[in-house]
Each structure stands twice: as C-alpha cells, then as structure tokens.
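--- STAGE predict ---
source: upstream dedup step, 1 unique chain passed
mode: sequence only
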Amino acid sequence: MAAAAAAAEVSNKRVILKRHVTGFPTEEDMELVPATARLAVPPGSAAVVVKNLYLSCDPYLRTRMSRHEEPSYVPDFVPGEVLTTLGVSKVVESGHQDYKLGDLVWGMTGCEEYTLITNLESHFKINHPELPLSYYTGVLGMPGLTAYAGFFDVAKPKKGDYVFVSAASGAVGQLAGQLAKISGCYVVGSAGSDEKVNLLKTKFGFDDAFNYKKEQDLNPTLKRCFPEGIDIYFENVGGAMLDAVLLNMRLHGRVSVCGMISQYNLEQLEGVRNLFCIVAKRIRMEGFIVMDHYSNYRKFEEEMAGYLKEGKINYVEDVTEGIESFPTALIGLFYGRNVGKQLVAVARE
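--- STAGE serialize ---
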C-alpha cells in the first residue's frame, strides 16, 4: 500500500446540503462543490477508499434534510457537509484485511466521486457482478431487501391473499408486487401516471392497477379493485390512501408500513380518521426498518439473483448521468418524475 504522503490526489466533486429544509425541497437546497480526495487510508487503520460508481436516490433521504427536535431512526444531515446515501463502489485503496483493491461493494457512501469509509459493518461485497452493478442500488440492494422483508417477514403472506401496493412502480413497490405474484397472491397497485399503470400491468405482471390522480374518491376505487377486501397492504404513501385502505381491509388483514411519501414534505402532517378499523377488523399494522433485516441479506441476494436470472422478476431503473445530476434526480422523486428505481451513474468503472 502506498504511503499516505505519496498518495495520489484526485478531483472529488461532492454534493452538500446548503440548509435544512421545510416543505418541498428544491435543487437549490443542495450544492455541487469542488474538492479533492487523497487515495490513501490513515496509517494503521482498517478503512478503505472507494470510487463511487452508482448512487441511490431514495425517499427517506428527504427526512434527513430537515432538522428534527426528536431524533429519527437516521440522523439529520448537517448543512455544509457532504450528503450520504447508499451506493455501489469499487475499492481503490484498503487497510482492511477483508477488502482488496478492485473489490466491488455496496453500502452507505458519500454523494461524491471518492469516499473514505472507516466503518464497513453494514457494507456488503457484491457476489453477482455478472448482473448489472446498478442493481445493487435497487433490486439486489436496500430497496430489494426492503420489499422482501416487508412482504415476507412483516406481512406474512398466504397463497390466494389479496394484496394492494401503493407507489407500486417505485424501487420497492415494483418488487413487493412481483414477490406477491410469485407467492400466488392477487395483486393490485397504484401509481401516479397512466404510463406507470401500464408498466405495472404489462411489465411487472400486476393483476390490476389504477392512477390515483384520476380517482376522486379512493374508497370506491379500492372497492372496485377489491370487492372482497384487502388481506395485505404494502404501505408506501400514507395520508388519504391509508385512510381509504383501512375501510377496505379484511378481517385479520396485515398492513406492512414501509414509508409514507405523501407526508415527507408537509409542514403539518395529515391525520388518519379510520384507525378504529384496526380494532373492528383485528388488523395488524406494523412498521419496519430494513437495517433490522440486514442479517438476512445473503439469503435474499441469492434468492433474488435467481429470480432475475430465471426471468421471474423484471426491474426498471431510471438512471441519470454524472454526480452533478444528483440534486435534480433526488428532487424528482417527490414529483413522480422517475419511472422505476431512481439512481445516478457517477462512473461506469
């Protein structure tokens, strides 16, 4: 390993948060700044330097852009510091015995071209480089494990269950729906455009789907799609959608709460009026955080890689090019501009 003093110094453009955000974020809340990176690890440390290849844009990042009086499950971003997100990276310098130059990994990294990673506990080596590396920001990474854990571990499906997935064309929703189909369930999804609804029915094999923006009242819409009610709701939206779903759940239904994107940009959160349905219908409603399921990652990775190779799972990505595109790509999530999993290609190796 080259000594730190002789290490190469390279350009390292990075995206920082300019200020904490209230309401809808804008591209101006972030800034692309020039910087440099030394391709060396501190002497005696078990750190690695990685070259970031792909960066993930995920809705939960919005919650980190605000300042919270009560701590959340992930810390707030600090204005002036580089944003962090999940990414696919290549090791270019290593002081860690388990990581060598050229290893491909995925895990938390900086929104920049090169990152020094000092804690590798939640990073994973990539076992299937024959599949597109970008898949490890999505179907083979955190969103895929989120769908898998939320559906199988939380919702506990049975063959023949009636399943509803909101935000169904997104990174997690498209997979939750397809896993439900593989499990022998009847699956309906909602999305925010006719293009996405068509994708759900033709590409992802959903039994039915609807454009929620065209529905004036979600309650009769769900009754039309589920005349016998809903057994499992994979919740990504919250708000009015959750309220309508509760009215349409079957006895002993399960609600797997993955996220509530409709609430992330509101200064005054919406309430839910139909919560008594949880009592009357004996519904189990459970939230989960994917990090609690990382111990199951290797089992999931092998199963999902198999589904991809067998053609049982289809996956759609929305890729923008260059680190400078990260702010625009992230903001687009909250306006429904993305079709499929949103990610940024920083370098193609």
